[in-house]
Amino acid sequence: MTKNSMCLDHVVLWVSDPVAAARFYTEAVGLDPVRVAEFVAEEVPFPSVRVNEETILDLAPRTFAEHMRMLPGAADSAGHPVNHVCLSLPTNAFDALRARLEQHGVPLSEIGHDSYGARGNAPRTFYFRDPDGNVFEARHYDE
């Protein structure tokens, strides 16, 4: 491991219905909702879900793209997919996530083995899509 102090703060996902997306990530994936009530009350531009104490997923409505003016062409990113986002979990949480996704009828890939990532080879991994087509990988490392 490196001693890099940089952390991943957030990933912005383009979604068609932020409330439905938040419900998916809360119920099927098991993440904690952030600012969903405030979004519904039109007090904030988008809700989020918490991955851990340092990282959230922002659930930005595609209609928000026109407000993305931080760089030339940034608004054009709506609909441009990222290949996938990987969630690393403890072994028991990995198994619980897979079971919860199955209960919600979410199609899952087969279990893969020895996939390389930030912490080396992960013994098991699988992929799933959210309702907007964003692809996620779930993995665990030996503990």
From TrEMBL:
Gene3D superfamilies: 2,3-Dihydroxybiphenyl 1,2-Dioxygenase, domain 1. Transmembrane segments: none annotated. Coiled coil: none annotated. Residues 7-141 form the VOC domain. It comes from the Bacteria. Pfam families: Glyoxalase. This is VOC family protein.
